[in-house]
Each structure stands twice: as C-alpha cells, then as structure tokens.
Amino acid sequence: MIKTSIAAALALALAAGSAMAEFKDFTVNGELVTKAQQEQVAADALANNPNPHGMMMNAELEDQVKQMIIEYKVMARYAKQQGIDKQDAVKQEISTMTDMILMKHAVNDYLKANPVEEKAIKAEYEKEAKRWGPKEVRIRHIMVKDEATAKDIIDQINKGASFAKLAAEKTLDTQSKDVGGILDWTSPSVYTGNLGDTIVTLKKGEMAKTPVQSPAGWHVVKVEDIRDSQLFPKYEARKEELRHILMQRKVQAFIHDKVLGADVKDAAAK
C-alpha cells in the first residue's frame, strides 16, 4: 500500500480548505495576519489530524489557529531581536522548510489541475464491491498451533463432539473462545489466503474436511450461515473516502515520477 507523504497530506488538506470556518484578518504587534495565512495553518493542522472531518467548520478551531499564530509571531519577533535568525543552523533549517513549502504548493497545484473524476471514484467503488462479493458468511472456527491437533479435533467433531465446546476448550483465538468459536458476519474475502479460499467452497452448515493453515495457525472451520451482502457501504457513504484515497494515489505517483527524473549523486563522488 502507498503511504501518503507529508506534502500530499498537506495538499489534500488545502484542497478541503474552502470548507473551513471564516477566518478574519488581525494584527500582532502591528504585523498583519491574513485570512489566507490562517487557513494555511488550519489546513496543516487538519492534515496531521487522524479525523480531519471532525475539525471542520467550528469556532474552536478558529480560536486555536489564532492563538497558534500569535505565539508564532511573538516568538519569531523575539528570536530576531536576539539574532537567532542569523545562526547558520537556523538559516539551514529555514532553507529546508522553504523547500517543503514549495513542494506542498506544487502538489496542491497538481491536484487542482488533475482532480479525481466521478467516474474514477465509481470504478474504484465497483472494484471494492466486487472484492467484497455478493455473499456474507458467519463462521465458526477453532485455531490451534499445529496440523495434527487440528486433525484430531476434526475427528472428534465427526464422531459427535460439540464444535462449540471444543472451541471453548482448545482455540487460541481469544476473541471467539467464549462464544464457541463464532466469528460474526463478514465477507469471505476478509479471510486471507487458504482460509478465505476454503470458506467460499463451503455450504451452509458444512465443515472443512481438513485443517486450513493461516499465518496465525491451523484452523478447523465451519460455515454456520450464508446471506446476501448487507454490510458493504452504499456508494454515497464511501464516495468521499474513496476520493481521498485516489487523490493520495495521484499525488504519490506524481511525486514518484518527479523523483525518478532527479539527478541524485553522492556529494563525495567525483
């Protein structure tokens, strides 16, 4: 999976900036702080928040941004009065920050020129829906550490032993141990590898004849019930999240392409 870079995250937040609260110009020691500057600081804050939508359009955010900028301006003025801005290490850091700011705005310009189209969002939604599948299952399983133990459990169940009782006694899955090995409704695609492949072959009430291996261990698995898919979200509920994911992909591809074309050399190389 491609992770979002800092620049991408900030640019994505900037793209949503128009939805934020109405900031007003103010001054600090006679220095003007514009509405646009406040929106920029707010966008940066939103980009670093795991739930940005929860921070949109509220007076508390306005107050926090204003206070943050006041602190920046006051302390920056103090630093200049002390000559701190003339130190070599500080000048080098400022230069680095300038590059980051330019990168952020380059990404934002790219996003404005290359927006995610509705048809791309719908196509991604349809791919996700296909992966989820038309059916959901409710399974019962027992997870153990080795194949021999799993085979022995299958033999016991085939001879009449209670699946639920054996699950409570032997499974290593602590989440399902107290409910007889039951795992609640979900898509078979959620179960990766051999486990998912096996589940889709089983009918309602059927147990796999042999143990199934997963990265976590060996499983005795039975499909308790099957129904038409109900849990996969509707398009409108998923739309904006998919838009954001596709924007991330666009930005990462854009940055990656530019980096590939860069002339990067070891400074010590001749």
From TrEMBL:
<keyword id="KW-0697">Rotamase</keyword>
<dbReference type="InterPro" id="IPR046357">
    <property type="entry name" value="PPIase_dom_sf"/>
</dbReference>
<comment type="similarity">
    <text>Belongs to the PpiC/parvulin rotamase family.</text>
</comment>
<dbReference type="Pfam" id="PF13616">
    <property type="entry name" value="Rotamase_3"/>
</dbReference>
<keyword id="KW-0413">Isomerase</keyword>
<dbReference type="InterPro" id="IPR000297">
    <property type="entry name" value="PPIase_PpiC"/>
</dbReference>
<feature type="signal peptide">
    <location>
        <begin position="1"/>
        <end position="21"/>
    </location>
</feature>
<keyword id="KW-0732">Signal</keyword>
<dbReference type="InterPro" id="IPR027304">
    <property type="entry name" value="Trigger_fact/SurA_dom_sf"/>
</dbReference>
<dbReference type="InterPro" id="IPR050245">
    <property type="entry name" value="PrsA_foldase"/>
</dbReference>
<feature type="domain" description="PpiC">
    <location>
        <begin position="134"/>
        <end position="225"/>
    </location>
</feature>
<protein>
    <recommendedName>
        <fullName>peptidylprolyl isomerase</fullName>
        <ecNumber>5.2.1.8</ecNumber>
    </recommendedName>
</protein>
<dbReference type="GO" id="GO:0003755">
    <property type="term" value="F:peptidyl-prolyl cis-trans isomerase activity"/>
</dbReference>
